[in-house]
Amino acid sequence: MTIEENSLAEDSALTNVGRRLWRRLLSVLSNLRLAILLLLTIALFSIAGTVIEQGQSLAFYQANYPEEPALFGFLSWKVLLLLGLDHVYRTWWFLSLLILFGSSLTACTFTRQFPALKAARRWKFYTEPRQFEKLALSAQLDQGNLDYLAQRLEARGYLVFREGDAIYARKGIIGRIGPIIVHASMLIILAGAIWGAMGGFLAQEMVASGSTFQVKNIIDAGPFASWQIPKDLSLRVNRFWIDYTPEGGINQFYSDLSVLDTQQEEVDQETIYVNKPLRYRGVTFYQTDWGIAAVQVQLNNSPIFQLPMAQLDTGGRGRVWGTWVPTKPDLSAGVSLLAKDLQGMLLVYDVEGNLVSTVRPGMATKVNGITLKIIDIIGSTGLQIKSDPGIPLVYTGFALLMLGVIASYFSHSQIWALQKGVSGSSPEEIGLYVGGKTNRAQVAFEREVIEILEQLSKLGQETPSLKAASLVS
Questions:
Q1: Which of 119, 158, 200, 205 is least enclosed by beta carbons within 10 angstroms?
Q2: Where are the alpha helices (DSSP H) in 30-137?
């Protein structure tokens, strides 16, 4: 054997090995058990991502998932951050699961679903009576009329093919297309989830009423999220207010927002509240929180000062905001103002912690020898800003999934018929053979075939040369 022949033989051997490995890989990926295992694993981690708060600060996880005692004996904040359970949907291992599951669906589609559809679309004829014996439902008529049978099948929605004395009819081919649509829709959903994880972001902003801001406080973002973050836009909180119930509880809180371009011109405006966000250019602004940003005060006849208010640590006993108001130019004396809501009541405490007065906006009180007047309380709105570019793909996938599931319920039914009465046939083989099968709704299919046979039998009774039908299972 020459060197060239040896080289060709080695190349052929490598090609065969590569083909075998490829077939083996496709066989493993298209395995139903693997697909179910991957789906259950994805569902399990999705539940974990729903139960565990996503994208929170380190202090939040340290407070809610301490090391002693650890949740379930092992789930502390260190374990949670190490495994990436604070951002499950953007971890490399979760995205790898999605890609592997998508590969399994693709392999199953091309190795099973497409061949099944191709086989279903290919018409074939039975030419021997013994072929009808393997069908789940078959019958033999002493005589029959193929033209009449073809008419009856077409009237029931069958697509009829005829070749000589043989008929092949089918209907419900969409039932074979349904699983392919289901697989395709799931791949679209997976693609949308991956794209949303890679290109989306989540931000939170606490903005005082009347202020303008840009989206900067990003708490979670994918590696390709920079193009989604609006850099040429700003938002203005025109007004923030709260509706209270007659009992004093919060009924709803609102934010009137304006979207501004680079010239500070308004391009969109919306009043948002819980479950009614503002959507602009793929970015959604949700109303999620509220607070007290500042208080405006006046000392005697001084100019109006706006002092920031900070939320105080109450140990879980409610939300309280406070600030300190100096009453002397050298800041050697002053009073504390406390507020728990935007209804207007402020508590005034001296340096020793004694309550000296209560006051509302527009009212004044005497403290440390001066007149302290409350002009207004400035509220702040808590906004969650989110972008998920994969949502259109996910919605499209779910729509196709519903269509695919509906299509999968259509029965794919097949009927064969063979007229044997030509010369050369044995006497016991003379007659009309009819048989069929379906992939679902077996009882309804049997009734349909029996009705067709009864119609053929009646036709035989009306024609003296025909005999009654006899069923053969």
A1: 119
A2: 32-51, 58-64, 77-83, 92-108, 114-121
Please state, in angstroms and as integers, the Cα–Cα distance from residue 36 to each residue in 32, 40, 43, 294, 415, following that order: 6, 6, 10, 55, 34
pLDDT tens figures, 343-376:
778 899 988 888 888 888 888 888 888 888 988 8
Which residues is 434 bridged to in the sheet?
Answer: 139, 417
Can you read off the two tokens belonging to residue 162? Answer: 């005829």
Is there a cis peptide before residue 69, judged by omega within 30 degrees of 0?
A: yes
> How far is it, in rounded angstroms, from Cα 435 to Cα 467?
19
Domain 123-172+411-471 has what CATH class? Answer: alpha beta
Each residue of 241-297: pLDDT tens digit?
888 888 777 888 899 999 998 888 899 999 999 889 999 988 999 998 889 999 999
- What counts of helices (H) and strands (E) characterise the chain? 10, 22
Q: Give the SS3 label for residue 68.
A: coil
Contact yes or no for 320/311 (Cβ under 8 A): yes
Q: Where are the domains of the chain?
A: 15-107, 123-172+411-471, 201-384
Token couple for 254: 């609102």
The model's pTM is 0.73
4 has a pLDDT exceeding 60: no
- Residues 438, 449 contacting (CB under 8 angstroms): no
* Rg of the chain, C-alpha, whole Å: 38
Place of tokens 């009864």: 454
What's the confidence (pLDDT) of residue 181? 92
